[in-house]
Amino acid sequence: MKCTNSKLKCESAFFPNKSGNLIARHLFSRIKALNNKLILILISLSFLSTSCMQDKHAKSKINASMFQHHYITQDLPGEAWSGYGCPTLADFDNDGDLDYSFSEKKNLYWFENTGITGWEMHDVGALSITTLGANVMDVNKDGWPDIVIGGYWFSNSKEPSTEKFTKYQYDDRIKSEIHDIVIKDIDGDGINDILVLGDKEGLFWYKVPENACRNNNWERTIITLDVLKENEHIHAGFFPNGVGDLDGDGDNDIVLPDRWLENNSNGLEWKKHQLPFGKRGRYGLSSRSWIIDLDKDGDQDIVMTDCDQQASRIAWLESSGGATPTFITHFLPMSALGIRGSFHTLFVGDMDNDGDKDILTCDQEDDSLLPEGANPRWYIWENVSEGTHIRFVEKVILDMKLGGHDALVGDADGDGDLDIFSKVWHLWTESANNGVEHGDYIENLLK
Length: 447
Ligand SMILES: [Ca+2]
Ligand SMILES: [Ca+2]
Ligand SMILES: [Ca+2]
Ligand SMILES: [Ca+2]
Known about the structure:
Blueprint: H1 6-14, H2 18-59, E1 67-73, E2 88-90, E3 99-103, E4 107-113, E5 119-126, E6 134-137, E7 146-149, E8 152-155, E9 166-169, E10 180-184, E11 193-198, E12 202-206, E13 220-224, E14 240-241, E15 243-244, E16 253-256, E17 259-264, E18 269-274, E19 280-281, E20 284-285, E21 287-292, E22 301-306, E23 314-319, E24 327-331, E25 347-349, E26 358-362, E27 378-383, E28 392-398, E29 408-410, E30 419-423, E31 439-444
Parallel strand pairs: 14-21
Antiparallel strand pairs: 1-31, 2-3, 3-4, 4-5, 6-7, 7-8, 8-9, 10-11, 11-12, 12-13, 15-16, 16-17, 17-18, 19-20, 21-22, 22-23, 23-24, 25-26, 26-27, 27-28, 29-30, 30-31
Bound molecules: calcium ion (CA) (4 copies).
One calcium ion binds near residues 295, 297, 299, 301 and 319.
């Protein structure tokens, strides 16, 4: 058979007779119909998956209109340009709502929550050393929250609105700033201990004695003095939540910017393991960390930011699990314009009440560590994970020439969503508060 039509040639090649041609045409049209159906199915599937993703984004609630900024204070007594430290969040007057504390160089204040726009300032007491790190603990077990800072603790007077706290010294060897303080059980007796880090002091933990209400050096255990070494110089690392059980053996380990320390022998011996994070800035290695099982596979992962340096990064470090876990760094995407400043804040929690953990940070308000090409801003990396595919999207939640430093998160107005408390570290003349120090309450408007 002579034929020039290539399609016919093709069919004839397979089915050389007339009935064969009919069968072939029938089959061919069936295949074509099936192909069309297949294409339709594929298109529908791809449309479905796109619309699922769009749905996921449509469900995404986090944006700048979800938050409202209020000042807690727009000026403190005295003159200072830097060193606003000691942020803590607790119900200091035991009236059922969260209050906030922070200090200037010489004095510590607490701010009584008297309604969202009303914050009444009270004295906690005088500082002996300008310092940053602080945390809340009921040191003397009287049911009232006390404040622990480097070398000292302030005992709640039980009438904190009218009476200052009482200051006790627990370590007279501390002569300089303590940067990180975390309260966790280190020796495994079920009672919380105090971990402190100062880059001119070292990394220690303390056992709180029975009779803590006196000036007396507490039992101190050195975890490492490597942080002091010139070639190591570790400025910060485990605040606010970088103490936890990374190797699943039941005791609390410690995160530093480029390593984790394995707790052996109930806090008496520590073994160093490398971590794939940590960037060196003008203050050395410095980070904020948060231990959490982010991918819900049963082992503890770590969320980390760089701090005390420009171009800070943010990442989650995925644990391999096992007795000596290793970690893979997943940097979080940044889409907003500009180079980031110093991410001296970290919180991991459900900011939009959709059941998954989001990640909060902000640029530090500090004229020596500003972002480039943008103002200091506040960010939430919204969790848009699908199943085991962990994914975050960067959202700018506040952009009004106000940055923050070691912000803390809690439900301040009792409406069921998480609000943000912060303060400045180092004044910036161009701030929205005209270069004056400020404390901030960023209200979550979700509810
Ligand atoms: Ca209160
Ligand atoms: Ca452990
Ligand atoms: Ca995990
Ligand atoms: Ca969430």
